[in-house]
Amino acid sequence: MTDSPASKTINLALQGGGSHGALTWGVLDRLLEDERLTIAEISGTSAGAMNAVVLADGYERGGRDGARAALEAFWRAVSAKALFSPMQRSPLDRAMGNFSLDQSPAYLFAESLTRVFSPYQLNPLGLNPLQDVLEAQVDFDNVNRCKEIAVHVTATHVGTGRARIFSRGEVTLDAVMASACLPQMFPAVEIDGEAYWDGGFSANPALMPLVASTASPDIVIVQINPIVRHETPTTARDIINRVNEISFNTALIKELRAIAMMQRFVTAKGIDLGAAGQTYIHLIHTDTEVQDLAASSKLNAEWAYLQLLFKRGRNWAEVWLDAHFEALGQNSSFDLDAFFDDPALQAARN
């Protein structure tokens, strides 16, 4: 993308979260609509990785409008594929307007099976309907040749537990599927003879490629997994869900802590890094609007639900742009010091 005199360049960090990635779709749609913004690099994990490659492919085909159209086409295709899933809402949930699958007989049966049998027994062929959608929707040659937007996709190496980041020239269908490989549901994805699981275990998403980027000092994190829960979980399912949320946020928190420590050290030593050495952190997230999203609803891809999430995401971006656009290129709009002094208060404030 070419900067106009008034434009500001940003790098994006996109979290994973199943169909909750439609929140990120809404955010991206609003950011792409704003011609004051230029997107230079995107780091994504799981659903965030899918959004990233779809955006880059669409942009390579047709600029901003092409990217927006590609994202909508992708999520429509995801929803169409979900029509054939046995995991559907119960009649009671439909009547109450509840989008969770907590009462879905098929979901409950599948959940119980995954606690006894591995995907190597239940799904030995590694069948994943999202792979068919991505293969049909995304030209990965476009993603890797796109000069305006560089994409980074993260997966977790099963043997070492370390993050592997696939960047320009390495971003393939397998890399994205590895980034979204939940080990309870799918066999590990093999790339170059190495096994990989969901990138959320090691980086959700990876920030270091964006810290090292010379394209922009601004990292805008689109966070869709709640850091704070206002009520202590007491049921078995809620406890498991909260453990998973903590697990998938830990890597992000560690990277943010490292950035905060670096910034404190530089300030304490009076080191002048110059404009090229700055890192500004921004967060698009509304804590209160994810409290009602059940973990099981990450597997619900009904179009009505995806549209609801999309609209929420667009609103998040709208509010954030109104409040923080002027901070871009100048300073962080997310206070790392306050976050690590009192995480609960900082998350609740946002």
Share in helix:
40-55%
How large, in whole angstroms, is the Cα Rg?
20 Å
Q: Give the overall pLDDT as a whole number.
A: 90
How much of the sequence lies in strands comes to: 5-15%
Biggest sheet record: 8 strands, mixed
**Shape from CA axes?**
globular
Let me know the number of strands.
Answer: 8
Gap between N and C termini: 30 Å
Low-confidence runs of at least 5 consecutive residues: 1-5, 343-350
Structure classification: alpha/beta
Q: Secondary-structure element sequence?
A: EHEHHHHHHEEHEEHEHEHHH
Number of helices: 13
Q: Which terms summarize this structure?
A:
disordered C terminus
Explain how this protein is built.
The protein has 350 residues and is of the alpha/beta class. The protein has 13 helices and eight strands. The protein has helices at residues 21-33, 47-82, 91-96, 105-114, 119-122, 129-137, 140-145, 173-179, 208-211, 236-269, 303-324, 336-341, 343-349, and strands spanning 8-14, 37-44, 150-157, 163-166, 189-191, 194-198, 218-222, 280-284. Strands 1, 2, 3, 4, 5, 6, 7 and 8 form an eight-stranded mixed beta sheet that branches. A hairpin with a 5-residue loop joins β3 (150-157) and β4 (163-166). It is globular, with a radius of gyration of 20 Å. The protein starts with 7 loop residues before the first strand and ends with a helix. The model is unreliable at 1-5 and 343-350 (pLDDT under 50).
